[in-house]
Amino acid sequence: MEARVDLEYVRNMFSLEKKVAIVTGGAGALGHAIAQGLAMYGADVVVTGRTLETLLPVVNDIKALGRNAMAVSCDVSVEEDVENLVQKTLKGFGALDILVTVAGIAKRFAAEEFPIDEWQQVMDINVRGTFLCCKHAGKIFKERKKGKIVTISSVRAFAGHPSGYAAYGTSKGAVNLLTRQLATEWAKYNINVNSIAPCIFWTPLTQEVLDNEEMYKIFMSRIPMGRAALTQDSVGAAVYLSSPASDFVTGQILYVDGGTVAG
Predict the structure, then answer these.
(1) How far apart are CA 160 and CA 153, in angstroms?
(2) Farthest CA pair distance, the chain
(3) What is the end-to-end Cα distance of the chain in Å, rounded?
(4) What's phi and psi for 230, nearest 5 deg?
């Protein structure tokens, strides 16, 4: 085969024109940013959350970019909700090309004091919810022989942390292995499954931790670049893993972490 670059492919390698994406956890800071990023590159986007009202600003921001958008109420840990989400997407947009599973929660307790119900809730949202969304989107992608799945992991899946992450870190470790498992199973259907693993980033949910001087020092000591991530730092990774540019990339955990796992 002649080793010549397809310049038309290169020109459009990050284009998401005529693509339809689902972004779970769309009302959160990261989900909102990723949904906007996908729309900026041409995708129509369905955003989900448990409360429709919280999704309306996201829908408006996407429509302001000239793309179509829809909000769907969905608890990702409930299989019927996830099935409904996929069916509403297909009915509303006629296709599904991209899934980004941002929905997740974190609860921090000392391991010996961690209430088991709280621990299980983290597992239900972060692991069960990720799997259910992948399962039902994967059925559509398998039929189409094409699809992009981007899960959201964390540097907490890479190494422990002395701040009560027995549930969160465990759940994200499971997300990493689930990502690789699905990538291996579904490669024959031309389905790419990858993950983005950020370090701690500035959101209303992390404000309490990052505003604590002692905690801030602990976290920053583990990030060679010396700062917490911004939500926009993960947008490029999401666009890349959703676009033709990553067509031969699957089963990878892309760390957006300022060098955390390197050092």
Answers:
(1) 14
(2) 62
(3) 41
(4) -100, 155
Q: How many domains does the chain have?
A: 1
Please give the Cα distance from 110 to 145 (Å, whole number): 45
Instruction: List Cβ<8 Å contacts ≥24 apart for 80-84.
Output: 82/129, 82/132, 82/133, 82/135, 82/136, 83/136
In which band, very low, low, confident or very high, does the pLDDT at 1 lie, cut at 50, 70 and 90? low
Amino acid of residue 214: E
Residue 53 lies in a domain: yes
Residue with tokens 């989400």: 85
Judge whether 48 and 74 are in contact, CB under 8 Å: yes
Instruction: CATH number of the domain at 103, please.
Output: 3.40.50.720
Q: Is pLDDT above 70 for 2?
A: no
User: Which residue from 234, 141, 33, 247 is spatially nearest to 45, judged by alpha carbons?
Assistant: 33
- Could you tell me the pLDDT band of residue 159, with boundaries at 50, 70 and 90? confident
| 168 carries an active-site annotation | yes
Residue 146: closest CA among 178, 188, 177, 176 = 188
pLDDT band at 204 (very low <50, low <70, confident <90, very high): confident
Q: Which of 168, 189, 240, 255 is catalytic?
A: 168
Q: How many angstroms separate the CA atoms of 88 and 86, rounded?
A: 6
- Tell me the residue range of the domain where 30 lies: 17-203+232-255
